[in-house]
Amino acid sequence: MTEMDYYEVLEVSKNCSGAELKKSYRKLAMKYHPDRNPDDQEAEDKFKIVNEAYQVLSDEEKRSIYDRYGKAGLEGQGMGGGFGGAGMDDIMDIFNSMFGGSSGGFGGFGRAQRDPSQKYALDFEIELPLEFHEAVFGCEKKIDITYKTPCGECKGTGAKDAKLDTCEYCGGQGQVLMRQGPMQFAQTCPKCHGEGKTVAHKCASCNGKGYHEEEDTVTIKIPAGVDSGNRLRVQGHGNEAKNGQRGDLYLTFYVEEDENFIRNGNDIYIEVPVFFTQAILGETISIPALDGELELELKQSTKDKEQFVFEGEGVVDVHSGRKGRLVAQVSMVLPKKINEEQKELLEKLQESYGVESRPHKSTFDSAFDRVKSWFR
Predict the structure, then answer these.
(1) Among residues 99, 130, 160, which one ends one of the domains?
(2) Which of 67, 122, 301, 311 lies in the 20 to 30 Å Cα band around 33?
(3) What value does the mean pLDDT of the chain take?
(4) Residue 95 lies in domain
């Protein structure tokens, strides 16, 4: 049987960083989590191997052993079907960030314990695209959401007449004991997902899902300075629990690019095309800025790619309120063609500089002599 490579499982390269590893694990864990894939055995199996791979590769010592000796080298090192070892806290932090609940604000998820009888997570996340200026200055957005509400016919159980049978796999305990060498530990039952009960006959109203879906429109105030990857918690607009309480909605922002401004964190970069005569002679020109325009003073003999920095003209930091910089970078523009009169003027200009107008000559004279000496 071919052994599955942990790096391939997590879709990362062997020289990936810890941050890349965690990012990929988060994506795959969310994709295959049983809460998001009810009654899907294939997803459940993938979820287990993703966790197993991350448990090893997130631990520097285990990763080093795995890189040298493969999975066989980890026997007796705490490997197994459950969570354990140095990666445990990291895994639980990521789980809490994806499926937690009550605390929050701008950034991460909360850490509320989930009711095992709840058929779905109360919090959910959607990606919200923003135009460049909406992210920079903040805005108000109306978004359409679809959230889950428990089925009234089956009281959220997914079972006909809300009648549930005791889970045969765990005997109604909601947990099963796993053995790893001399160690024994409890793991959530994979069949009933910790409920201790299973559905014998599906509810006709919700087809056994235990919930219906409702549509709503929410008005969200987006703070100035958000960037792609930032998340915003919106309290009370998540899925509805059996007791009527609502979870939270989490927005992950995707900011579209601008035609002229390039954003790097709180700094803004803009390329300024400058004709070669402007760069030689020097000139004061107007350039666009986030709040209007700025005066850029080109000194004589400005170089191509030279940068001019304007402090406090960038994007406001969403946490501290401080503004970043605007960096204007010169892009030298040369004439695409010249007429006879322009050519004559340029030749006269070049001659007026004498030896200085041919820097290659003084630079390469000694090189030419040295090369000739090689063949004497």
Answers:
(1) 99
(2) 67
(3) 83
(4) 1-99
